[in-house]
UniProtKB/TrEMBL annotation:
Signal peptide: none annotated. It is an enzyme of class 3 (hydrolase). It holds the Pfam family PTH2. SUPFAM superfamilies: Peptidyl-tRNA hydrolase II. This is peptidyl-tRNA hydrolase. Keywords: Hydrolase. It comes from Streptomyces antibioticus.
Amino acid sequence: MTSDAVVPGDSPFRSERSVRDEAPQFVLPLVVRIERAEPPGRTDALETAARAVLTLLADERARGEGEWARAVRDWQDARIRKVVRRARGAEWRRAEALPGITLTGKAAEVRVFPPVPLDGWPKDLARLQVSGTDLDDPEPPGDAAPGTPVIWFNPGLAMSAGKAMAQAGHGAQLAWWELSERERNAWREAGFPLAVRTATAGRWSELTTSGLPVVRDAGFTEIAPGSATVVADHPALR
């Protein structure tokens, strides 16, 4: 599922919308493993996708003069696009052979790849399906542990698991941008603990006026443009 984030004014990437639109467009590919017999739970997949995005951003290959750094910079200087595709069996094995990072949750497996041009996908990723990422939780997730960063979803929006995985990744990325280097290092060294939960209506109203990072979707798929989809609630940002 494709998802584009509207970059907020307080992000470190402050170029005007028209400039960002005119820049060469890149996309961050994520692939979730969905085997027919044992699909992962929805929340597990969302949390694993968010951690995958953070892991790539923190990777030495994506920073400084690393081999992925130029692609990451180009991607972040344009629209922040993420596309989630699904794979199983041989498809998953071919995806794992490409440069990237695999993150494992409770049962979910998500592989994130360095950004690629919109029209320059590796063939083994381009042939994967975007649809078919509908997932369910076997039981409702419990409350997040105290002190855990939480990516809160808008209770008034319905979206596929693939779309939601991309939105969770957007929320994690906005939190990462807002943290200091010391706070980033602490989060990374802890293994990027986080939770994904859906807020109550009252809680959502509080979150969206709290000053925490809010993802507003560009509106190309599933939901209306400008919709607030998630709020990134990291304790260090309060």
